[in-house]
Amino acid sequence: MKMQINQALPKLGLGMAALGRPGYINIGRDDIFGNPDNRSLEKMQQQSDLVLDCLLKNSVGRPWIDCARSYGLSEKFVGEYLRRNNVKPNEVYCSSKWGYTYVADWNVKLEIGSPHEVKDHSVENFLKQIEQTNELLGEYVDLYQIHSATFESGVLDNEDIHKALHKCRKDRGWAIGLSVSSPRQGEILKRAMEIEVDGQRLFDSVQCTFNCLEQRAGPSLLDAHRLGMDVIIKEGLANGRLLKNEVIIEYSNKLSCTPDALALGCILAQNFQPRVLCGSVTPEQLISNMKAVQVAEMLRHDKPLLEEIMGRCVMDSEAYWNERSALEWN
């Protein structure tokens, strides 16, 4: 059985949402990838390989990579890279997600109203997607997560899904988690923490949006941590918005660090002891993101400063998600 997630694991991992497909909502992709029409599969895989090279060379302990069925070809890119470089399953930590299907057909700009990914939290889709994940990444998977669980999708009340996830954990040795989004993240997590199968809590982890701008889920994440769940944070830079935030820039100048390292360090220093996914798409970005570990250590010893930064940055949760929903795929 694979190593369980509550044991010692890397604090920073690489999220593949922005590397596994040509388009994403992170700000400024044209500056790195160029014209959206020229982002071939080969070009994106080469860029993915460069960042994975950097991750494996610079991680302290096991490198951590997070994929999803809907992140384009992320599972294919990662699986092929790891096998090509003869990386053993116990030398890397991999998580992935099911629940969305990528339907953009390697396009960045779609017709108005056409989605890049389609959600389906049915048992049938789970059984289909777990086999797809297993084929592409199987021997490396440590954690399998519901992608963006919501009340509306019915996945939190579907006992057949709960049993199937529980069976996956028993049969494959994969830990089971869920990711959450929207202003209702805390409510969704609270419900998820209550779900049990055969007297055992179903979810081992939660992947949640939390950053200097969006802090609403903090109390629920602390509850999850106290319950023994692994707390994983996504979108720590708010899809790039925090890199241009005046407060973050002001304090990063005062502390002689980069804005990204400060924003991610503020998350790592939280009392719910999170692990954080970076959305780096270049080796240089990844190296800079990794410096957040040192920034977090400083902030843990200066809680008033941490509270000051967080207090000056926080925004209304609904407004945050409205701004996020307005971000264009680029």
From TrEMBL:
CDD domains named in the record: AKR_unchar
Transmembrane segments: none
Pfam families for this protein: Aldo_ket_red
Domain NADP-dependent oxidoreductase: 60-253
Organism ancestry: Eukaryota, Sar, Stramenopiles, Ochrophyta, Bacillariophyta
Protein name: NADP-dependent oxidoreductase domain-containing protein
Signal peptide: none
Entry-linked InterPro entries: AKR2_Oxidoreductase (IPR053135), NAD(P)_OxRdtase_dom_sf (IPR036812), NADP_OxRdtase_dom (IPR023210)
Organism whose genome encodes this protein: Cyclotella cryptica
